[in-house]
Amino acid sequence: MGHVHVLDHPLIQHKLTLIRDKNTGTKEFRALVQEVAMLMVYEITRDLPLKEVTVETPVGVASAKVIAGKTLAIVPVLRAGLGMVEGILNLIPGAKVGHIGLYRDPETLMPVEYYCKLPAHLEERDVYVVDPMLATGGSAVAALRAVKERGAQRPKLMCLVGVPEGIRAVQEHHPDVDIYLAAVDDHLNDHGYIVPGLGDAGDRLFGTK
Ligand code: URA
């Protein structure tokens, strides 16, 4: 069974509080989401494998380490997931970026994929599906299924805020997936918003309403 990791680094928690604040405007909100995504990925990648190399310094030769293996793949779920990508790329500029677009069928209420463009060789990469809000879990479950169908092995899910309902849905459909969150909130309201949450992440990122 995958694990649920709540990343409680003080900087992540401090910035998340600013993100939640309804008085935080679009520009600051966007910057903070990028910063939290960067800090989260810093924590999550703690166990990446390393390999030994030698490097010439100005005064000698050092045996040193670099990250081994294929570059990571980040897969934001459109549209709010886009708000986390630049922050991750600041730290891991070589990461490949895929995109998944989902809409909810008005009749079945199930997520339907309308766009999917993913990096090659997904089976050899560490794949991170990113979306700020883990609410019902419908889109996360569908996005994880989409990357697995295209080869991803044990992808990870990274969100800012989740609720128990969403976590349970992901665990039920993808028991192998580790979930990384900055906070687990109380519940979903009748409109599908996380309470207390931070509102509509996409609207707050892009200044729409
Ligand atoms: N999506 C959001 O943007 N906010 C929520 O609270 C739930 C889903």
Automatic annotation (TrEMBL):
Residues 6-208 form the Phosphoribosyltransferase domain. This is Uracil phosphoribosyltransferase. The gene is upp. Catalyzes the conversion of uracil and 5-phospho-alpha-D-ribose 1-diphosphate (PRPP) to UMP and diphosphate. Binds 1 Mg(2+) ion per subunit. The magnesium is bound as Mg-PRPP. 5-phospho-alpha-D-ribose 1-diphosphate binds at residues 79, 104, 131-139, 200. It comes from Alicyclobacillus sendaiensis PA2. Allosterically activated by GTP. The keyword GTP-binding applies. Keywords: Allosteric enzyme, Glycosyltransferase, GTP-binding, Magnesium, Nucleotide-binding, Transferase. Uracil binds at residues 194, 199-201.
